[in-house]
Design goal:
By secondary structure, the protein is an alpha+beta fold. It is built from four helices and four strands.
Length: about 160
């Protein structure tokens, strides 16, 4: 969902979203992830410029959750932070909210600065933490058609070994 209404989120919904992130599984229970929760409109606007394209809608979200992790705490910090990001999106959908993952790792702002460095500067994030994603959340500003199951790529599924259909 890249279009949001101006309606703010209920406090109970925000708590449910944050609980989902904190209950996210992680390798060896390292819990190497951390989260910066942003609802300040000026900061959301700044975050919407973290990439050359594909992040402008953050400014219209009611909330953005910046998903960070400490690479020194876990060698699979990327996977752990990705799982946490998606758990957040699943919880948002369960609450009837819209969300969109904004990839930050290995992306660049229009100035050429890395998106990670840009977000670090906006939010004063300690250097040892890496930014994986920003999940924008809000009330859905449009309806989306359900996925067309006739377009499922069953040929991508292999049984018992590669190449067997």
């Amino acid at each position: 969902m890249r279009k949001f209404t101006a309606e703010q989120l209920a406090q109970d919904d925000v708590v449910a979203l944050l609980k989902a992130t904190l209950m996210s599984p992680s390798s060896k229970r390292s819990n190497c992830w951390e989260f910066v929760v942003v609802d300040d409109k000026e900061t959301l606007d700044k975050l919407s410029r973290c990439k050359d394209s594909g992040a402008s809608f953050i400014k219209d979200a009611a909330l953005a959750v910046v998903v960070l992790a400490d690479p020194l705490a876990s060698d699979v910090w990327i996977e752990d932070a990705a799982i946490a990001s998606f758990m957040l999106q699943l919880q948002a959908e369960d609450l009837g909210l819209g969300s969109c993952w904004v990839q930050v790792r290995e992306r660049f702002a229009a100035t050429g600065m890395s998106s990670d460095e840009y977000v670090h500067g906006v939010l004063d994030i300690p250097l040892q933490l890496q930014v994986l994603s920003i999940v924008a959340i809000g009330h859905k500003g449009m309806e989306r058609k359900p996925f067309d199951e006739t377009r499922l790529q069953w040929e991508k599924i292999h049984l018992n070994k590669y190449g067997v259909k």
